[in-house]
Sequence to fold (243 residues):
Amino acid sequence: MSTGIDRSLLDQLVLSVGSLRSGKYSDFQIRCSDDNIIQAHRAVVCPRSRVLAAAIDGQFQEAVSQEIHLKDDEPSIVAKMMDFLYTLDYDDHRSPIKGPGDERRHDPASLVVNAKVYIVADKYELDDLKKLACTKYKQLLPGGTWNSSDFTESARLVYDNTMETDRMLRDIIVQSAGINVKALLDRGEFVELLKDHGDLATEIMGKVVARYESQVKDLETGKIVYDFGGTGVFTRNNGPVKR
Fold:
């Protein structure tokens, strides 16, 4: 007898749980900082987040309202966290906008949305949500969204609100900034960010140095002559370049 689970059955289960996002059959509620109420289910929320489970269990022992108040979190981001708990996804509002030359690109503001989701996921120990926020954030970077005030704001949010040892989204930010550092240094708000966060500046410098050393090695083997900060590439395949 096969032990495999029919994928359609799993899809039905996800849809069934997702349908509860409407609040039907809820057994507790979340009050947001704007007093908006989100109806929820302990069976869905508690197994996913130890922090929320502890808050729910602790408050219910002495209260009859069956309500927890997330007064320190942005309501729209709390809603996205709840969307994920019920549907395994959330909307980061990545609607395409018009770029230079009528080029269509993602709205850079979505970088900030995903950074905020990452931060709230870290706070409530939702590792799968953190991974999804990183994936969505990284998907937005091609096409020039890094060259925006939203990229700088998202980086500031992450570096202000996460531990130095939490590298998941920090590494993505540093990688993108290291590749595009020349253009980013022309942005005043990014320079201010580096002044405020010496750790970020040091990490970006490390990426730039590593990139330079890699290019020097390629220079010596004849693979590449020069490519610094994404400004230009000139390749050679006819043997080592003598310096």
User: Anything to note?
Assistant: The longest strand covers residues 28-32. The mean pLDDT is 86.
